[in-house]
Specification:
Blueprint lengths: L4 H5 L5 H11 L3 H10 L5 H11 L3 H8 L4 H9 L1 H8 L16 E5 L3 E5 L2 H7 L5 E6 L19 H18 E11 L1 H11 L4 E9 L14 E8 L11 E2 L26 E2 L3 E2 L20 H11 L5 E4 L6 H8 L3 E6 L4 H8 L1 H13 L7 H9 L5 H27 L1
Parallel strand pairs: 2-11, 3-4, 3-10, 5-9, 10-11
Antiparallel strand pairs: 1-2, 4-6, 5-6, 7-8
The structure holds S-adenosylmethionine.
């Protein structure tokens, strides 16, 4: 903890110096450790106390902590020539790659290639600006056990540094107009978004409603994963509109919302997909669960790939896991590149059992981009609710009735 920016800036180098600093500024140890651990700038009154004892200015402490407010960025820009003069000859850290994690080709199809190894190393070997769509679902640093044996409990700093490395490489690989989707916990997505905002165009923060933890005391119930969606350049090359069936009552199949006289104006292809996804299932069913607890639903990948790429485009996912992205890309006739640090056996097995997954994706497609699925229609007919076909009949009948009434009225008035 003494190598972190906050303590370093204040010259706190040991437990004893921390204790004496705490006494002199009258800020308790827990709070000082919190500022240091999370790299959070102290509150106004705490900073006043620190400043009165150490004399450090706000600007100096912020620069030390790497907290670059807009104001500081303006100052850096004003003095950029001088700053550049100072740092231009500093050696850029070259990555030192491990020979053991050098990617090797494990499996391929006519459309795709699967490597085993480190995604950072693989990305260095892929041609820049050659990928149409990237989806990434990295480990979340939650101390999960991965088959690859990777360390999933590193410091926040280390995790964010590593994240920045792979995110920047993904950005380089993306074609102009290409799309990048990143799936992570909201906590990490706030940091990832701040990297992406500098290079790509923000389109959406999609909230996928999936309960992934038990409620925690003194916190809201975490119930969504964040799916960041960015494009290179202002306009995506591909945006295939996706629509969903109308939401209806699970029990009586009736309308949940009142559409009044607008029922016949609803698009028969379904309701516009919003940025809150309520229909992504966790992978629980043993038939569909092919691996550990990290497997994402093919429904999610089908949607992303259909939305942001066309047949023949190239899809890349740097974190293979159970290979959901590669399976979905293969079935949807996209070219794909995959890599997994750990064993690729379960991904390859999954390709050997692709048939049921083809059926699953067909089913997902049958049940989207339509206002009512066949099952919904049958249920609604059974419960005497409208469906588009009966609406047009109702309309014809009421038009006929109107005409008849008009005739009757005119004949009455003549008599
Ligand atoms: C959250 S899982 C991905 C799950 C995947 N989306 C699916 O649906 O099956 C993350 C995966 O990334 C792998 N991984 C971690 N670091 C990696 C690296 N540097 N290069 C390649 N894969 C890595 C882990 O072994 C793990 O299988």
């Amino acid at each position: 903890m003494f190598d972190k920016a906050f303590f370093k800036a204040l010259n706190i180098t040991s437990d004893s110096s921390l204790r004496s600093f705490s006494k002199s500024v009258k800020i308790n140890l827990t709070k000082l450790r919190y500022y240091n651990e999370k790299n959070i700038f102290p509150s106004h009154s705490d900073f006043q106390a620190i400043n009165s004892i150490t004399g450090i200015s706000e600007l100096e402490l912020k620069l030390n902590m790497g907290i670059l407010d807009k104001n500081i960025i303006n100052l850096i820009q004003q003095h950029s020539n001088n700053i550049y003069g100072i740092i231009k000859n500093t050696e850029k850290n070259k990555p030192i790659y491990n020979e053991n994690t050098k990617p090797t080709l494990q499996f391929n199809t006519d459309l795709g290639k699967l490597f085993q190894g480190d995604c950072l190393q693989l990305m260095d070997s892929i041609e820049k600006e050659s990928i149409d769509l990237i989806f990434a679902d990295p480990p979340f640093n939650l101390d999960k056990k991965y088959e690859s044996g990777m360390n999933d409990k590193i410091s926040d700093d280390e995790y964010l540094q590593w994240t920045e490395q792979w995110v920047l490489k993904c950005i380089d690989l993306l074609k102009e107009g290409g799309s990048l989707f990143i799936w992570n916990l909201p906590k990490w997505n706030t940091h990832i978004a701040s990297i992406l905002n500098k290079y790509l165009d923000f389109r959406h923060w999609i909230a996928a409603d999936i309960k992934y933890r038990l409620p925690i005391k003194n916190r809201l119930y975490p119930a969504h994963y964040g799916l960041l969606y960015y494009t290179k350049g202002e306009k995506p090359s591909v945006f295939n509109e996706q629509r969903l069936p109308l939401q209806i009552c699970r029990h009586c199949a009736g309308d949940i919302h009142d559409y009044g006289g607008y029922k016949d104006k609803l698009n028969l292809k379904g309701i516009n997909l919003s940025d809150i996804w309520l229909d992504i299932p966790p992978v629980r069913h043993s038939k569909y669960k092919t691996r550990g607890s990290n497997e994402l639903s093919l429904k999610l990948l089908e949607r992303i790939i259909s939305l942001a790429s066309n047949e023949g485009d190239t899809v890349f996912d740097p974190f293979g896991g159970s290979g959901s992205t590669y399976i979905a890309a293969e079935i949807l006739k996209r070219k794909w590149i995959g890599v997994e640090l750990g064993s690729t056996e379960s991904i390859i097995n999954r390709f050997n059992e692709i048939d049921w997954q083809i059926e699953y994706i067909k089913d997902v497609q049958r049940n989207s981009n339509t206002l009512f699925t066949e099952e919904m229609k049958n249920k609604r007919i059974k419960h005497n609710h409208w469906i588009p076909e009966t609406l047009s009949k109702e309309k014809v009948i009421s038009k006929k009735k109107e005409k008849q009434m008009a005739l009757e009225l005119s004949s009455n008035s003549e008599n």
